[in-house]
Amino acid sequence: MRRTPLVSAFLLAALTSPAYGWSEQGHRMVAELAQRQLSPEANAEVARLLEGEREPTLAGVSAWADQLRATDPEEGRRTAAWHYINFPEGDCSYDAARDCPGGDCIVEAIERQAELLADRTQPDAERARALKFVVHFVGDVHQPMHAGRRDDRGGNDYQISLRTELRPDAYGRYFYDAETRTQGTNLHAVWDRYVLLSRGLGWAEYADALAAEGVADVPRATPAAWAEQSCALIRDEGLYPDGHRMNDADLERLRPLAEAQVRAAAVRLAAVLEPALAGSAEGRGDVTPH
Q: Which ranges form a coiled coil (predicted)?
């Protein structure tokens, strides 16, 4: 029996674990745009800490935290909750006791890893690891579904039948109906991959296009405020489609919002990294942007 796209979408949710953030494209764009905003001193420290990496740039390590699921499954499981925070529907005010029990959420993870990165008494290997976490998590917290609804696990349990001209990736083709060009997926995955992919640019060309718009004028604020903002976008911008169906016109409508989030993430990432990387060796500096 041929599966319908919507049935395939429900099968997709049953067979996959929660998604973990922007696609590699999105993470690379955030990291690249942030690195362009760092001082020469901070960039020199990036190069020193990442020496020996296959691609020793912020973009090159931006997806590392997701790749732990394959390269170090135990560590991937231990840090899985650091990639997101879930809010009760309609309430976007951060309550650490309610929303981040035990400190296991993206807000507290960014704070901890930024402090570790800024601590010059720590071994370089630990600081490099913290750098990779910070780069990834600041990207994640600006993907709206990473500060999403608790009841559907940030859109992972909200199934979508997506009619699109975009071709599926290797895994997605198992839930793709070529006849109707419809992809079975979920709302989290739509934001992870399809919204940015709809512009049709590679990550480097896309980063150049966003850089040409200038540095985003956004308040630096705090990780808690970033999560609250992402949550508010879900609540206020109509990110949940009626009828669990979307198409390319929906992706086009949502893309400017996603691009604004990428640009904001880059500014805030640079604001976290600059004092942590270029600060005095005698002191840790202030790692929380204002």
A: none
Residue 272 domain-assigned (yes or no)? yes
Largest Cα span, the chain: 68
Nearest to 86, CA basis, from 17, 156, 136, 134:
156
Give mean pLDDT, residues 111-117: 98
Q: Give the pLDDT band of residue 247 (cuts 50, 70, 90).
A: very high
Distance CA 214, CA 229 (A): 21
User: Which pLDDT band holds residue 288 (cuts at 50, 70, 90)?
Assistant: low
The per-residue DSSP string of 37-48 comes to TS-HHHHHHHHH
- The CATH number that applies at residue 236 is 1.10.575.10
Q: What angle do CA 227, 228, 229 make, to 5 degrees?
A: 90
The total of structural domains in the chain comes to 1
Q: Are 204 and 33 in contact (CB under 8 A)?
A: no
- Domain enclosing residue 218, as ranges: 5-278
∠ CA(271), CA(277), CA(278), 5° rounding? 90
* Assigned domain for 119 exists: yes
> Rounded to whole angstroms, how far apart are CA atoms 113 and 185?
32
- Give the pLDDT confidence of 8-54 residue by residue, as tens digits: 444 444 344 344 457 899 999 999 999 999 999 999 999 999 999 99
Extract the tokens encoding 225.
């405020």
Nearest by Cα to 141 from 251, 13, 27, 250: 27
Predicted TM-score (pTM) of this structure: 0.89
Residue 174 pLDDT > 90: no
d(CA 137, CA 106): 7
